[in-house]
Design a protein that fits this description.
about 400 residues; about 5% strand; two-stranded antiparallel sheet; mainly alpha; 6 strands; about 50% helix; Alpha-Beta Plaits
Length: about 400
């Protein structure tokens, strides 16, 4: 590459890095800004479309990037990817320190194919390896709570940099699924170029190998997704943010970018430390301790880039049920003949009323599920300690009112 072209490319990459940072800081572009950057990944976009059979908000950006990759080989990696910029910089430093280039099999295409194959059955298992999602997760460091889950969630880019420093070009050339997907998208165009340049006698064999690898990778990914769905079947479902798609699809579509937790004004969305098992590691869960899901907020659904959280309006949020409140009258102050109306008074949807029970001769809280989305205001307001008398639990198929 000519020196002036190389300088221009590095300048463009630095500008793209700064633009990515600006998008990922919610104060600059609001809650939608953090969703735009990871949505630029064709891997995230195609997986979301295959898994949900819809085109979630901003996913069309990744489809455009993928369309350009059909004719411009790895252009996004070479000009725009901030994770790639970090990896390339580390690789250059590694080469100057005498480190040899990585000599390992290229597994990136297999990661991409397995992910897309799983997406066909609603569970793109390795989507969390997308480099844009990993870069976005770095901004979880802005969270006030520096727990184990947070430190685990931000390790992606540092690990990529370390690997690239020790084994230059390992990530970008051999592992990155986004770069490998661009290779796959550009294969037809390159094969056609070879055919037109009078090398057609060499084209059939590569074409056949590519076809076999693609079919095999997609098939294994689909089989893996089926097996994972069977294994996950008995695991309990935790509380998820409003708008979460059904659990198997959610665990696959979520790229663990941390956008939802960073934009949540209540700070109740946290990373899962395997409450749901290994499949749920670092996926967002809701913990109702000091606050609840505000009735006037849909920021987390606007910040999700992959379709794991369906975009909501304030009106539709009532139907995006988080969980179901359950009352334990053995703990409730009313069950002890004392007066309390905390849960009813704090409910933003006016979904709680009290009915007199002639058997126990006391008032019992009743929840109208048609007006309740499980926001947790009642649980937060409940004055009983250490156990709460009313607790929001994950929805079940047969959840009916109050138990």
């Amino acid at each position: 590459m000519r020196p002036n072209v190389a300088a221009v490319r590095w300048l463009v990459r630095i500008v793209c890095l700064l633009a990515a940072v600006a998008l990922l800081v919610p104060l600059v572009f609001g809650a939608s800004g953090p969703a735009v950057f990871p949505a630029l990944s064709p891997l995230v976009a195609i997986s979301a479309v295959l898994a949900t059979w819809t085109v979630p908000a901003f996913v069309w950006l990744g489809l455009i990037v993928g369309a350009v990759a059909l004719v411009r080989h790895r252009w996004f990696c070479r000009w725009a990817c901030p994770t790639g910029l970090c990896a390339d910089s580390a690789s250059r430093l590694g080469r100057r320190c005498g480190r040899p280039y990585a000599r390992v099999p290229a597994i990136g295409q297999w990661i991409a194919l397995l992910t897309l194959g799983g997406a066909c059955l609603g569970y793109p298992m390795l989507l969390w390896l997308d480099p844009l999602g990993m870069f976005a997760s770095l901004f979880r460091l802005s969270s006030a709570d520096k727990d184990v889950a947070l430190w685990l969630s931000v390790l992606g880019v540092p690990v990529v940099v370390l690997l690239s420093l020790v084994w230059p070009n390992l990530w970008c050339g051999h592992v990155c699924p986004l770069g490998a997907l661009q290779d796959l998208l550009g294969q037809p165009q390159r094969l056609w170029t070879r055919f037109r340049s009078h090398e057609s006698q060499l084209a059939p064999a590569p074409r056949q190998r590519i076809a076999r690898r693609t079919v095999l990778g997609l098939a294994i990914g689909a089989a893996w997704a089926s097996a994972a769905g069977f294994v996950r079947g008995a695991a309990p479902r935790p509380l998820r943010p409003p708008g979460a798609v059904n659990e198997p699809h959610f665990l696959g579509l979520c790229i663990r970018c941390g956008n939802c937790s960073r934009v949540c004004p209540a700070g109740i969305i946290q990373a899962d430390l395997m409450d749901r098992g290994l499949a749920g590691l670092l996926a967002p869960i809701i913990r109702i301790d000091d606050d609840y899901c505000r009735a006037d907020c849909v920021a987390c659904t606007e910040a999700c880039p992959s379709g794991a959280l369906v975009r909501q309006t304030l009106d539709s949020k009532l139907r995006a049920r988080i969980g179901v409140p359950h009352v334990d009258m053995n703990v409730c102050l009313l069950g002890d003949g004392r007066e309390c109306a905390a849960c009813r008074n704090e409910c933003p949807y006016e979904a709680i009323r009290y009915e007199f029970c002639e058997v126990d001769y006391t008032s019992v809280p009743q929840v109208n599920l048609d007006r309740c989305n499980g926001c947790g205001a009642c649980q937060m307001a409940c004055p009983t300690l250490p156990d709460k008398a009313i607790i929001v639990r994950p929805c079940s198929r047969n959840a009916e009112g109050n138990s």
